[in-house]
């Protein structure tokens, strides 16, 4: 019986892929490559790079439409190979393009890849690369463009970004092994610019003295009588100071100081200090300056570290020096009596050390920087070129000589023959007195730090040159100092690069930078691996050139780390470089923008914070003279950012609230200072910089209230923490925070889980975990525990088609056979109609009662005849169903499909819940025992089905015995044991068994390959054991003869009612045709359709009231007369749901249900229900029952029918496909999610529940706010408007059906009346039927495009015309197009045709066995996807009485299982499977090639085929 009925054509083994598929694959590969390349370039823009998860957003479009935006996550680190990045980008892009059909993808014309701009404050701050595919024939010639949103800023190398991306893209193929951290991608023009920007002016002249003291001697010879030092009212000329230095140098030599020795200077400012400094140099030694404020430990450490030969002092030596072994020479004391010593010849040259400056070290101990004569002499000459000092200048000397900035002051004067004016220490400590001192001494050149300058109350008129350095300089500070008379220069330079390396003039209104390198200097920006950073990117500032220090004294490891010798950088630089540890970037004009220290960037709650950025904003606030921000740790161990402020005396009061509001608008939340602390002055270091460590911790009351945060302790916690931070946009986050208590909701949960799933360790994480493990800590522990318990993962296969697969020729052949079969399906009703027309002459001669009896007999014979024919054809076409796997679109599948269509066409709904259905299924091959109750018609593969004695199958239960998955038809056996119970809408998948007396509860599923043991109760999806059942005696229920007679009469009555209602309607229409002709008579169809609804409704109501009667709650015996009345009541409702379906989801539905016995409150909304027990239903005011809900179905088990009352509380919402068992009582304001069961009894009002079994949703996203007038309490005019629109929603489908019948009837009657042969009339009539159905379906599509246009993501209130127009379109689809066009085509390649016409984006070779697609444009289904029987593509929900719509995407070869529900904003990745009776939550993404099942869905480990 398994041989094909028709021999197929020979299979072509491997047909070439269609051109559109090839095009799509090429574009997909290109986009993935550019995504990987852009990710690498973007990642490399950070100078210090930790492993990171980068999230990009893709906006891809073809010429006609934009694809849904998609987010992808790529994990990068420096050591990752380009090939690995490309592989991950390819996998992520496949997920991003899930739902995009190959034909749509082949037409892609542009793709935009965007990353958040570094330091982005808002989502609109992005960097974007745009790819253009304008020439399909030249795919390799992709146009690459780059854009940076205006708000993002910060990128100066924008013109080169396309070249960077293109370079990395090309290296994906040419150098796949290159690593992310080392791949070189800078453009040649960019390198040239970097070379230009990084080089100072031409080198200073090399002639002249090359040692510092020789420079002074040259000046003394040139300007012997010029003042060298102006101190304490005394002017010391150059020749005098030189002579004093010579004499002191001779004294040092006499004391044993030799070339190469170190000599300490512990002296207050005086002429002797400067003479001593020069004397040490003249003696061939290097001086080591020490500040008098240094503590004893620091002084002794430095003297011991450098091995100082001597220490010069000009006061009494401190007592702690008594233990120091070196010489202490007191310069105020006269030398020993005797002949004056003569200065001897000194060995040494430019490479000998001139001085050592000790700076702070990261270990807590100071480190000595060795500066050779070559370096300091180069600086002196470079600054002469830069500052052009003259003998007429008077240079202030304010810095301690222990700070290297003092060298700048000294030699700006001494190299030019100018006067050095030392500032007394007490004056330097009294900023109010300093301006007067400078003015009195006619100082023209002043070098200082911004902190000190901010404290000066008045300007200094004599100044012509103001030099700033040592710390970040706020430009606001300099505005009052710059003038035509006074040049203001901002300088930068670490001690290791000899005082100053770059400089920039301050120009009001222009950005203040640290300028360009001085003459002979080189400035390079490198990343942590020593690679050049792109132009405009942030990098570590590295200094090269002849002014570098020799290194660190006694610290060879540190010297090697900080002073690198490089060769062959792309800019041409080679030689020694000093890595400053400072961040900077090149501006467009070549100036260097200083961005702060790498090692002083603080990190708070996982965020890097540059303190200077906060300080700069504070300085822009009126009344704040200076600001310093520090990271402080309180007694509680919590770190806080504290802002310390010096206020302008003119504004002594600070409006802290206003300052906070100002900062909040400009700073990220994590950058907000916890406290604003005004101070009179800042504690300063010897250098004059702010001593941040000495800033006081705020007293109680200064700090904003905060809490102790638990921060991540493990990598898993860190990953979850980062995902939460991103979605909550806050730094105030602890690993112990409850997700829902801090504002999380169901949508956020789905988004976070989906984002985490893109990382391998989270691939199997379920959304439900967020509800049961609601803290970061608990969620991470669950993930780690699952990883530890999981077996080694199996090798993952590609997301391609399974094997075997039907060949292309066989698929085409099968499609042709299916088309022919569909034509035959349409031919059957035309044959019946033609027969009735042919018999009209004979019937006209019969009495009316005989005609009526004949019609009734024909109607009643329809059920046994139709069922009998189905049985015969089943055995002829397929014989017995056999377990196994078969190629989809193959010949066995074709036979299976024909039988399935025949079974679905059989009138089984009328036989449901009666013994006749058992007989029918037995005849089809099912093994059904005695006393089996069959309330469901969702059975197939009958030969594989065993229902033992007493088994009970509730309504809508699914025992199909087959599923389609990735181009395979899979058949398997199902067994339901003796007296076992299968609940409402429960499902047994293939190869399953429900043991004797076992129970499977409502909305539960037994997964493929599983068995439920005897006498156990299982619940949920996926089901789990929830109870153990006591055994009982086998049920002995048998239908008796009286029952069978009455049941048969009840079935006959329900058969005759629709026919009886149609007789007067068609009678009127016939009269209209006879009197006015066919076309004019068509105008009567709408009012006649309304009449049909009224007549049939009246007949059904009469049967319900007077035949079935009112049903009482309680228990009644199965197969009794009382049961027949109960069955009849349910059949009336089922008939109305089937024939009068357009009435539901209208304002008329509550009136109809009240007529049938239900209690329905004011403004309740009731959609197209699957089942209700009207007599036992109470729906209170404002409640909402969405589509496909089952409410209050009786429980039939062991020969008893339990009927219980069901109550839906006021303003309660029941989601699509939800199941409320009989006896459920819901309170006010509750929400039951889609495909969910009722909550436990006593659930609080105003709570939300989802799942099977249901669990509490603590929070859920609330719809856009609409007034009650648009949701719950509309004004009268809206009620009337909706009523008018819904009149057409109800009548138009009936009018369409009537028009179709009229056209076919008229056409066939005309042909038979005019002598055409019977078969010709039948064949042509079938063509007319097809043409009419097609025409009215096209009219339906046109109606959609006119009334709705294109569906777009949006929210619309219930009482709006948009919703009503949408319902009208849906009514035409559901009650006409789906029945007469789509349903016959389901399971064929043509099934998607109408959905494509309506705007859905569905690919080729999609298996479609559902019509549950509504907002058509929002559904994206890619090629070879499978949508199994009864699956729902839910692109909208009506929570809060607001229609929320959005897109939904299903990838290539993805599978949606039987009765599964996919909610909007979700993505099913390529090759992923959502198994039967599963719920994919809003915003959830299933990774490629994974398997999921459950409500909500959970990961199935192992990826088996079950």
TrEMBL record:
Any one GO biological process: amino acid activation for nonribosomal peptide biosynthetic process
Keywords: Membrane, Transmembrane, Transmembrane helix
Recorded superkingdom: Bacteria
One cellular component (GO) term of this entry: cytoplasm
One Pfam family this sequence matches: AMP-binding_C
Any one GO molecular-function label of the UniProt entry: phosphopantetheine binding
Cell wall biogenesis/degradation recorded as keyword: no
Sequence intervals crossing the membrane: 812-837, 849-873, 1045-1070, 1076-1103, 1290-1312, 1318-1342, 1378-1398
Domain Carrier positions: 711-787
NCBIfam families: AA-adenyl-dom (TIGR01733), NRPS_term_dom (TIGR02353)
PANTHER family: FATTY ACID SYNTHASE (PTHR45527:SF1), NONRIBOSOMAL PEPTIDE SYNTHETASE (PTHR45527)
Protein's name in the database: Amino acid adenylation domain-containing protein
Species annotation: Hymenobacter nivis
Lineage, broadest ranks: Bacteria, Pseudomonadati, Bacteroidota, Cytophagia, Cytophagales
């Amino acid at each position: 019986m398994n041989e094909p009925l028709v021999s197929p054509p020979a299979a072509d083994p491997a047909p070439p892929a269609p051109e559109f598929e090839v095009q799509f694959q090429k574009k997909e590969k290109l986009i993935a490559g550019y995504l990987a390349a852009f990710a690498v370039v973007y990642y490399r823009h950070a100078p210090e790079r930790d492993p990171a998860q980068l999230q990009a957003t893709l906006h891809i479009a073809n010429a006609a439409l934009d694809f849904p935006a998609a987010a992808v996550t790529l994990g990068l680190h420096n050591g990752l190979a380009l090939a690995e990045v490309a592989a991950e980008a390819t996998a992520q892009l496949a997920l991003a393009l899930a739902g995009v059909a190959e034909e749509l993808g082949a037409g892609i014309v542009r793709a935009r890849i965007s990353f958040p701009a570094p330091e982005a404050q808002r989502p609109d701050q992005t960097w974007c690369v745009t790819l253009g595919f304008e020439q399909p024939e030249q795919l390799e010639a992709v146009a690459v463009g780059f854009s940076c949103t205006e708000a993002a800023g910060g990128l100066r190398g924008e013109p080169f970004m396309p070249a960077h991306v293109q370079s990395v893209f090309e290296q994906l193929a040419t150098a796949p092994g290159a690593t992310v951290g080392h791949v070189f991608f800078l453009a040649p023009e960019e390198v040239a610019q970097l070379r230009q920007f990084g080089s100072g002016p031409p080198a200073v002249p090399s002639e002249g003295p090359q040692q510092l003291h020789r420079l002074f001697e040259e000046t003394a010879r040139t300007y012997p009588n010029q003042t060298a030092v102006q101190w304490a009212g005394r002017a010391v000329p150059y020749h005098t100071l030189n002579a004093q230095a010579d004499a002191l140098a001779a004294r040092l030599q006499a004391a044993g100081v030799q070339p190469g020795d170190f000599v300490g200077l512990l002296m207050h400012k005086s002429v002797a200090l400067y003479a001593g400094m020069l004397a040490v140099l003249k003696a061939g030694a290097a001086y080591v300056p020490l500040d008098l404020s240094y503590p004893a430990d620091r002084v002794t450490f430095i003297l011991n570290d450098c091995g100082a030969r001597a220490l010069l002092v000009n006061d009494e030596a401190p007592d702690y020096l008594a233990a120091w072994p070196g010489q202490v020479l007191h310069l105020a004391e006269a030398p020993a009596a005797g002949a004056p010593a003569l200065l001897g010849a000194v060995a040494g040259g430019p490479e000998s050390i001139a001085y050592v400056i000790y700076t702070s070290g990261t270990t807590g101990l100071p480190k000595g920087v060795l500066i050779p004569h070559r370096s300091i002499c180069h600086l002196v000459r470079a600054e002469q070129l830069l500052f052009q000092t003259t003998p007429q200048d008077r240079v202030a000397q304010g810095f301690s000589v222990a700070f290297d900035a003092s060298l700048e002051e000294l030699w700006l004067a001494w190299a030019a023959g100018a006067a050095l004016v030392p500032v007394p220490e007490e004056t330097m400590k009294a900023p109010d007195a300093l301006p007067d001192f400078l003015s009195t001494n006619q100082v023209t050149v002043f070098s200082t730090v911004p902190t000190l300058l901010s404290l000066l109350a008045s300007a200094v008129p004599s100044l012509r040159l103001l030099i700033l350095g040592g710390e970040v300089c706020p430009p606001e500070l300099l505005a009052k100092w710059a003038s035509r008379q006074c040049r203001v220069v901002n300088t930068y330079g670490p001690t290791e690069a000899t005082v100053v390396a770059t400089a920039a003039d301050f120009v009001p209104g222009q950005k203040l930078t640290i300028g360009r390198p001085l003459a002979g200097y080189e400035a390079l920006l490198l990343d942590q691996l020593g690679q050049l950073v792109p132009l405009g990117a942030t990098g570590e500032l590295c200094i090269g050139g002849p002014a570098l220090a020799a290194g660190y004294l006694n610290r060879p490891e540190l010297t090697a780390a900080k002073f690198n010798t490089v060769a062959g950088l792309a800019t041409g630089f080679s030689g020694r470089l000093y890595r400053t540890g400072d961040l900077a970037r090149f501006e467009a004009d070549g100036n260097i923008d200083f961005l702060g220290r790498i090692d002083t960037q603080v990190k708070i709650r996982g965020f890097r914070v540059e303190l200077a950025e906060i300080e700069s904003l504070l300085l822009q606030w009126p009344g704040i003279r200076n600001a310093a921000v520090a990271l402080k740790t309180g007694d509680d161990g919590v770190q806080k950012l504290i802002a310390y402020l010096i206020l302008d005396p003119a504004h002594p009061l600070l409006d802290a609230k206003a300052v906070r509001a100002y900062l909040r608008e400009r700073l990220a939340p994590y950058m907000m200072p916890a406290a604003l602390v005004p101070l009179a002055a800042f504690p300063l270091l010897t250098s004059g910089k702010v001593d941040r460590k000495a800033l006081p911790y705020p007293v109680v009351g200064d700090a904003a209230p905060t809490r102790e945060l638990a921060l991540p302790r493990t990598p898993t916690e860190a990953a979850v923490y980062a995902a939460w931070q991103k979605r909550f946009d806050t730094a105030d986050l602890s690993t112990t925070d409850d997700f829902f208590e801090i504002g999380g909701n169901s949508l956020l949960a789905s988004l976070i889980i989906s984002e985490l799933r893109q990382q391998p360790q989270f691939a199997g994480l379920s959304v439900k975990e967020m509800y049961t493990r609601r803290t970061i800590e608990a969620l991470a522990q669950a993930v780690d525990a699952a990883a530890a318990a999981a077996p080694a993962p199996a090798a993952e296969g590609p997301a391609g088609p399974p094997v075997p697969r039907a060949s292309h020729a066989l698929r085409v052949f099968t499609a042709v056979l299916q088309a022919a079969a569909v034509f035959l399906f349409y031919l059957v009703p035309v044959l019946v109609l033609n027969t009735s027309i042919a018999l009209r002459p004979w019937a006209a001669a019969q009495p009316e009662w005989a005609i009526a009896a004949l019609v009734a007999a024909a109607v009643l014979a329809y059920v046994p005849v139709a069922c009998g024919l189905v049985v015969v054809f089943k055995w002829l076409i397929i014989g017995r169903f056999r377990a196994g796997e078969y190629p989809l679109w193959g010949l066995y599948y074709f036979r299976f499909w024909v039988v399935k269509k025949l079974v679905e066409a059989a009138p089984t709904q009328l036989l449901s819940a009666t013994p006749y259905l058992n007989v029918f299924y037995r005849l089809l091959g099912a093994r059904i025992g005695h006393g089996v109750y069959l309330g469901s018609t969702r059975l197939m593969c009958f030969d594989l089905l065993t229902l033992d004695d007493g088994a009970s199958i509730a309504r809508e239960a699914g025992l199909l015995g087959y599923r389609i998955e990735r181009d395979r038809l899979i058949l398997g056996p199902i067994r339901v044991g003796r007296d076992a119970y299968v609940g409402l809408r429960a499902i047994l998948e293939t190869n399953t068994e429900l043991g004797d007396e076992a129970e499977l509860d409502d909305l539960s599923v037994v997964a493929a390959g599983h068995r439920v043991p005897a006498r156990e109760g299982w619940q949920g999806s996926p089901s789990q054991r929830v109870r153990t059942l006591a055994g009982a005696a086998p049920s002995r229920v048998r239908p008796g003869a009286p029952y069978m007679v009455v049941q048969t009469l009840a079935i006959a009555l329900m058969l005759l009612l629709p026919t009886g209602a149609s007789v007067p309607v068609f009678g009127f229409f016939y009269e209209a045709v006879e009197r006015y002709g066919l076309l004019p008579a068509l105008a009567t169809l709408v009012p006649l359709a309304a009449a049909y609804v009224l007549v049939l409704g009246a007949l059904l109501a009469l049967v319900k009231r007077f035949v079935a009667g009112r049903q009482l709650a309680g228990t009644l015996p199965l197969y009794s007369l009382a049961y027949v009345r109960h069955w009849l009541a349910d059949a009336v409702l089922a008939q109305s749901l089937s024939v009068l379906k357009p009435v539901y989801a209208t304002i008329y539905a509550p009136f109809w249900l009240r007529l049938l016995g239900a209690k329905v409150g004011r403004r309740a909304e009731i959609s197209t229900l699957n089942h209700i027990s009207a007599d036992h239903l109470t729906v209170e005011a404002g409640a909402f029952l969405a589509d496909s809900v089952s409410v209050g179905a009786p429980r039939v088990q062991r020969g008893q029918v339990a009927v219980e009352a069901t109550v839906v509380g006021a303003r309660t919402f029941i989601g699509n496909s939800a199941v409320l068992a009989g006896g459920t009582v819901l309170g006010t304001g509750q929400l039951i999610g889609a495909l969910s069961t009722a909550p436990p009894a006593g659930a609080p009002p105003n709570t939300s529940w989802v799942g099977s079994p249901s669990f509490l949703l603590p929070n859920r996203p609330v719809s856009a706010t609409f007034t009650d007038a648009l949701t719950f309490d509309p004004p009268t005019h809206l009620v009337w408007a909706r009523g008018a629109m819904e009149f057409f929603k109800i009548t138009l489908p009936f009018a369409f059906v009537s028009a179709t019948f009229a056209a076919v009837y008229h056409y066939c009657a005309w042909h038979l009346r005019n002598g055409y042969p019977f078969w010709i009339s039948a064949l042509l009539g079938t063509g007319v039927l097809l043409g009419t159905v097609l025409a009215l379906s096209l009219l339906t599509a046109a109606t959609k495009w006119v009334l709705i246009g294109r569906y777009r993501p949006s929210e619309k209130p219930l009482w709006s015309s948009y919703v009503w127009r949408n319902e009208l379109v849906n009514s035409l689809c559901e009650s006409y197009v789906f029945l007469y066009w789509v349903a016959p085509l389901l399971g064929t390649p043509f099934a998607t045709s109408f959905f494509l016409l309506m705007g859905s984006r569905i690919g080729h070779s999609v298996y479609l066995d559902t019509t549950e697609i509504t907002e058509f444009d929002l559904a994206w289904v890619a090629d070879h996807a499978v949508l199994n029987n009864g699956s729902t593509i839910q692109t909208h929900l009506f929570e809060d009485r607001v229609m929320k719509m959005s897109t939904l995407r299903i990838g290539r070869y993805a599978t949606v299982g039987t009765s599964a529900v996919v909610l909007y904003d979700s993505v099913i990745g390529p090759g992923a499977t959502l198994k039967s009776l599963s719920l994919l939550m809003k915003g959830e993404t299933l990774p490629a090639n994974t398997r999921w099942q459950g409500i909500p869905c959970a990961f199935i480990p192992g990826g088996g085929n079950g």
